[in-house]
Write a structure and sequence with these properties.
The protein is mainly alpha-helical. It has helices spanning 22-37, 48-52, 60-74, 91-103, 106-110, 113-124, 135-138, 140-151, 163-180, 221-229, 248-253, 264-273, 278-304, 307-336; strands at residues 9-14, 41-46, 82-86, 155-158, 189-192. It has two domains: 9-198 and 306-336, Rossmann fold (3-Layer(aba) Sandwich); 209-300, Tyrosyl-Transfer RNA Synthetase, CATH 1.10.240.10. The protein is 54% helix and 7% strand. The structure holds tryptophan (TRP).
Length: 337
């Protein structure tokens, strides 16, 4: 959707979740870091109020939020350049949510995927259609629109599943602007990167927590190596020529083509003609991933031991973002009340 447009500001919202894996890195985090590099202003927030809709066990949101923030900083988000903050620290977003709820037709919410999926599951399981559907889930797209429109971000990187939410955000902004007869809310564009950048898991299917086939990101060299050693292969012997195109080991390695310890090109050739076994190939992949991610893991551990530092970063982030959101909200309120 973008390509040639100038990106003036990027906003990324992430749901708190522990246990990031290298699929998240390749599919979402790395493309996001690259976008941040090219952008004047960038915002990264943890959508903890969105998580509340699932009513997770108490304490989970906080723990996962801290892990998430520490992971993203360790992986290269620079708090000096990117405003990092928590959704729950920006009351202006929730006030805007009330205003935007007034201009949003109920029928738009009826069509939103997350809600519709819950309803179809209930019907499938012969339950009441509204079972486990709270109002937070139902109006989720309005809160997401509020996150975006309060900041006035121009571009939003999202996975395929979030495109509809950005379209709804644009429609809400248009409807609001039409109501006040002024262009107050900026309609955002989405950027999808995920589909060009998928990575296979250790069983050869798409890497995903739900398939239980992930290589974890923030973990020790031993644990990361252990996951790599579990990659499924065929039963070819050391001297047999091997099929690089269909090798899970190489599909993963292709996402990380640089290694200071191994000559990947040479290794590829030897693997193709025979002479390298799967065990050795896995070790080379493990070395490469460990070289790539272990420095980030060490930074992560340091940050996790220094929660004051994380608190300070989040406080700075919310101060800066509240200023922006407050100005926007004042303008909005002047026009409607
Ligand atoms: N709904 C997004 C997700 O599930 C998270 C999110 C909430 C978000 N608010 C946002 C993403 C605003 C981008 C912009 O991944």
């Amino acid at each position: 959707m973008i390509e040639k447009t100038v990106i003036s500001s990027i906003l990324t919202g992430i749901k708190p979740s522990g246990d990031l894996h290298i699929g998240n890195y390749v599919g979402a985090i790395k493309p996001m870091l690259d976008l941040f590099e090219k952008t004047e202003r960038s915002f990264l927030f943890v959508a903890n109020a969105h998580s509340l809709n699932g009513l997770p066990p108490l304490g989970n949101i906080k723990k996962q939020t801290i892990q998430q923030v520490a992971s993203y900083i360790a992986l290269g988000v620079d708090p000096e350049k990117t405003h990092i903050y928590l959704q729950s620290d920006i009351p202006e977003v929730f006030e805007l949510n009330t205003i935007l709820s007034a201009v949003t037709p109920k029928s738009w919410m009826n069509k939103a995927h997350a809600y519709k999926d819950s309803v179809s599951k209930n019907i499938e399981n012969k339950k009441d259609v509204d079972e486990n559907v709270n109002m937070g889930l139902y109006t989720y797209p309005i809160l997401m629109a509020s996150d975006i429109l309060a900041i006035g971000a121009s571009h939003i990187p999202v996975g395929e599943d979030q495109i509809q939410h950005i379209e709804i955000t644009r429609d809400i902004a248009d409807r609001f602007n039409h109501y006040v007869q002024r262009d107050i809310l900026a309609t955002p564009e989405y950027i999808t990167t995920e589909n060009q950048n998928t990575i296979v898991g250790i069983d050869g299917r798409k890497m995903s927590k739900s398939y239980n086939n992930v290589i974890p990101l923030m973990t020790s060299i031993e644990e990361r190596t252990k996951a790599v050693m579990k990659i499924t292969t065929d039963s070819k012997g050391i001297d047999d020529p091997k099929d690089i195109e269909n090798s899970t080991i190489f599909k993963i390695l292709d996402c990380f083509p640089q290694s200071s310890r191994h000559n990947i090109e040479e290794f590829k050739n030897n693997f193709a003609v025979g002479g390298i076994g799967y065990g050795q190939a896995k070790q080379i992949l493990a070395d490469t991933l460990n070289e790539y991610f272990n420095p980030a893991f060490e930074r992560y551990q340091k940050l996790m031991q220094n929660s004051d530092e994380i608190e300070r970063i989040l406080a700075d982030g919310s101060t800066a973002v509240r200023k922006i959101a407050r100005e926007k909200l004042i303008k909005i309120k002047e026009n409607i009340y």
